[in-house]
Amino acid sequence: MSHLKYLSAYSEQTQQQVAQLIAKNQLGEVLLKRYSKPHDLRTDRALYQYVQELKTEFLRNAEPINKVEYDSKIHVINHALGLHTSISRVQGGKLKAKHEIRVATMFKEVPLEFLRMIAVHELAHIKEKQHDKSFYKLCTYMEPNYHQYEFDLRLYLTSLDIGGDRLWA
């Protein structure tokens, strides 16, 4: 099961079920049945607008997001799907923070549910810095199916990792 690095935190039983799907060459098929088409948010501007709408709906009083973009320098290999950065600067007598969200370019061609999961995850970091219980509670508040989408995204990454095709490209 060492080739299931994206699923290492899941139970042995779950990993065995995924290994069986891989052995039968059905992992991609299962994902395509659940998620038939990719999203259409291809530009940085469209991504920014999408994330802003999520922020407005769920985190109205949070600090503003200054930049949202796809970033080709983010690699899943480094265990990053997206990044939230906060840059603090002194302006006048006040401390100002600029928040930026970057999403790996490979997520231009995935289902909207996967992109939403990444956006929700990065937005949650505005309020909760650590991956703790309150962080995941906020994620599931913004997206009730957060954990399912994260698992399915991990299945997709596993599929790519073992040499599978990009399913929605």
Automatic annotation (TrEMBL):
Short name of one Pfam family: YgjP-like
Q: Which intervals hold domain YgjP-like metallopeptidase?
A: 93-153
> What InterPro entries does the record tag this protein with?
UTP_pyrophosphatase-like, YgjP-like_metallopeptidase
What is the protein's given name?
A: DUF45 domain-containing protein
